[in-house]
Each structure stands twice: as structure tokens, then as C-alpha cells.
Amino acid sequence: VDPECSKIFELLKIRRKHRFIVYKIDADTEAVVPETVGPRGAGLADLKAALPENDSRYAIYDHEFTTYDGRPTNKLFFVSWFPPNSTPYSKMAYTQAKTHVRDVFTGVFDIMCRTPTEVESMIMGVPEEEEDQEFGDDDF
To answer: Residue 134 pLDDT > 70, yes or no?
Structure first.
């Protein structure tokens, strides 16, 4: 894990300078390095747009929301991004490196997502709709 990863993570976690950070495994050095840093004004749609549709990634997202009693708060999410059309090598490499990466990012909720709608449903807490349902409810 590149030392720059922890520096940028601290800026997001402590100083609230960024909304999200996308990390990738560098092909040359095989180290986890920051790829995209979202500005504080960015949102969940910007994070989903920053995730590639054919390669795995890690991401940290700072989700701000209001609790049921009206208090503003936030949660940090560690997103393991494994889209269905990424290569098996990519999925293996990211799965193997995850334990080392998680040691650097403390105090985050761990989620794994395959599609952009899954990212939104896991972070927002909204149940996702079944998109690939083979049979209708009336078929049984």
C-alpha cells in the first residue's frame, strides 16, 4: 500500500477535504495507489461515475445524512468494487490485497458491490430492485 493512500484518507476522514477516493492497484509496482479524488461538493453519482465498469477498485465514500432525530452525521464506507465483467485476475488481486488495505483504513464500514445500483442501495440503505429476475411473480 502506497503511503500516499493513508495521507489522502486522513484528509478525508479528519479534515473533511474530500467526498470520496478511488484506489487502484498499479500494474507496474503492484501497490495500491489513489486514482481519483472527489471534491467535497461531489456526490454519490460522481463516485459511481468514477468506478470503471470493467475493472475492480477500492473506494472510500463519506456519506452525510440526517438521523431520525434531526442530527447531521456521516459514515465512511469502504467499497470493494467487483463488477461482473472484470477479469478473474483483477478480482483475485483485489481480494488478496484487501486485508493489507483494510489495515490502513480504520473506522469505515465495509461493503462489496458489483453494480452502480448496488453501490447506491448499500450506502443509502435503500433496497435495490431486482433487475435480472428470470421469472415473474405470477409464474409459480
So the answer is: no
